[in-house]
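Bumping with the actual sequence this time:
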Amino acid sequence: MPRGSVDANFMFTLAEVQRLLRAYADKQAARHGITRAQWAVLAKVERAEGLKQSELAELMEMQPITLTRLIDRLCERGWLERRSDDSDRRVKRLYLRKAARPLLGKLAGLRSEITATALAGISPADTHRLLTQLETIKENVRSAIQLANGELARKEQRYG
């Protein structure tokens, strides 16, 4: 690899891999009558049933109105339900409906197929190393964001 090519290609390659994976997942999810965004909502709720809609929107980095539309569709299809919070009537918590369980089973298999397709030709050891390295990159960037936010807050205190 020529000198400087990592700097020139790193972010573009990561973004292109993400874009292609999203496009492929969209196409594959459509076979099951669901969008990738709906699949993501169901998967998040499956991992943490009882989430508030506002918590889910933050977790998914999505505008609340966009998420509300997705949830409306999932409720209409009988896969998700909103329940009132016991302590605050304004709050709606999200729960999977029984009908979502078989679909989530199929989607788990689909996730495995997509992963296998993406990682074809890469050894299991290299796959684990790649995942570990991606986690390190994620933490490096997360730390840099927190540091930058802290510096911005200090500047605002001095000049604000």
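The tokens above came from a reply further down the thread. The mean pLDDT is 91.
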